[in-house]
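Table 4 source record.
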Amino acid sequence: MPFSNSIHNLPTISGYPQAQRYFSETRKPPRSKRWEEHQRPLLNTSATHYRIERSATTLQGSPEFYDLMLYGTSMVRYFQPEADGSSEVWLRNHNSTTSRRFLRRVANFSGHSVREAWDTADQQEKRQPKRPVRIPLSTYVSSAFTADNGVTVPSSWSAVLTFKDNGLVLERSAHRPVYIKRTSKDATATRTEFMDKLKPYIDILLLSIPSVHAETKIKRDDGRAFKGIEYYPRNKVGDLLQWSNERLGDMSEPMFKVLQDIFAAVYKHAFGVWVQREVSWQDAHKYFHWSGSPIPEHMPMLSPDAVRSSFERYLRDNICPIRKGDIPVDLGQFPESLPKTYYY
């Protein structure tokens, strides 16, 4: 069975009671040295990388928590419910396709809208749950994080959540910070000055498109997509910025060579993107190989306007990314909505 499809066959275990029931109803694989007493398979005996694990029992005899395991990592931890009916859940994310699918399928968690828990007034007056909130999950972080409400997210975990009455108790929950980034006025001024100094040299480089096109080689990426690039000389942009800050005269020959190298790399990338969009998958495989191939003669060059746009955007983004900015702005805990691009 393909690995990517096996996750779809896993059971959904969305809380401590379900975890306890599943564990008690599932036999430990007999005569198997790969399974311990505190472990049960989520798929089959051979799939040891999908399992549920029970913690050591408390004095009352009930397990303190159950872990939903992906390989050697606990992705979800369900704690035993407390006397008031609330239950704590820890979540972890590695920002991989497998971990996201595992969280969606097994824990029934996607990070989309989750209702805030009712309080007494809401139950009496409206009988309606509070606002829906989002629960963004950061990737691995080695340090603990404590939110303003005093809830601490332990090291390597993404969120600590407390649920009650099928809703999220915000006062007892926290996730690692989420940011958007804004571009400062100083960064905008630096970028503008830098691009103004480079403009005459970019005009010269655009005249070299025929030779750059002829020397460009791209290769298949994974048999389906063509990234069209192996090396982006990002570190070299810093050399150009240093030249821009220190020199008021003409660009030196070594610096112009740096600019040429970046220009060639960006052209290669831009042409690879064009191949993905304009050339059929079958035709592209006739022309480009795993080891890299020259661009066939009948394939047209990219237009100067398209090359200029790609080149200038790359240079600007490496000085101060337009999409990211340089000033982090905290979105706060459990925002009602998340922008398309955000950062941890």
